[in-house]
Amino acid sequence: MLAYTIRRIAQSIFVLFVVGLVAFSMFRFVGDPVDNMLGQERTQEDVERLREQLGLDQPFIVQYFRFLEQAAQGNFGLSYRQGRPVAEILLERAPATLELAFVSGMMALAGGIALGIFTAIRRRGFGANVVMTLSLIGVSLPTFLIGILLIYLFSVELGWLPSFGRGEVVEVGGWTTGFLTASGLKALILPSITLGLYQMTLIMRLVRTEMLEVLRMDYIRFARARGLREKSINFRHALKNTLVPVITITGLQLGSIIAFAIITETVFQWPGVGLLFINAIQFVDIPVMAAYLMLISVMFVGINLIVDMLYFAIDPRLRADRTSGGH
Question: Is 78 helix (H, G, I), strand (E, B) or coil?
Answer without folding.
Answer: strand
